[in-house]
């Protein structure tokens, strides 16, 4: 991992739909020469993944938006819910930009 590489964590109910979005985000990052690590976790595994990976930003799938306030209370990193339209249409470039903006 590059020293200045940022880590983006996505959380959804089961981790399945966000894994497709991760792929699209990685494609967008590659095309724009942005060096990031992006991974998805299920809501039930989120705490373990946060502890293991120490992400720089946490993005929540719209279906787990109810977790936002809990994460914001306990984390010192930016936490946001992914735009529902970007999520539904799997707009990896938009979601990547959201994450980058949150870390700026």
TrEMBL record:
Q: Which of UniProt's keywords are assigned here? A: Kinase, Phosphoprotein, Phosphotransferase system, Sugar transport, Transferase, Transport
Q: Please provide an example of a Pfam family that matches this protein in its UniProt record.
A: PTS_IIB
Top-level class of the enzyme under EC nomenclature:
transferase
Supply the PANTHER family for this chain: PTS SYSTEM N,N'-DIACETYLCHITOBIOSE-SPECIFIC EIIB COMPONENT
Q: What is its EC number?
A: 2.7.1.69
Name listed for the protein in its UniProt record: PTS system, cellobiose-specific IIB component
Provide the positions where the record notes the PTM Phosphocysteine. 12
**MF terms (GO), sorted A to Z:** kinase activity; protein-N(PI)-phosphohistidine-sugar phosphotransferase activity
Q: Report the domain of life of the source organism.
A: Bacteria
Q: Name one GO biological process term.
A: phosphoenolpyruvate-dependent sugar phosphotransferase system
What CDD domains has UniProt attached to this entry?
Answer: PTS_IIB_chitobiose_lichenan
Q: Report the residue ranges that make up the PTS EIIB type-3 domain in this protein.
A: 5-104
């Amino acid at each position: 991992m590059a020293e200045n590489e940022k880590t983006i964590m996505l959380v959804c109910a089961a981790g399945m739909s966000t894994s497709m979005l991760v792929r699209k985000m990685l494609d967008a990052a590659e095309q724009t020469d942005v060096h990031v690590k992006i991974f998805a976790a299920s809501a039930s595994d989120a705490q373990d993944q946060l502890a293991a990976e120490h992400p720089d930003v946490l993005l929540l799938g719209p279906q787990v938006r109810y977790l936002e306030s809990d994460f914001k209370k306990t984390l010192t990193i930016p936490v946001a819910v992914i735009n529902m339209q970007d999520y539904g249409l799997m707009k990896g470039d938009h979601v990547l930009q959201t994450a980058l903006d949150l870390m700026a």
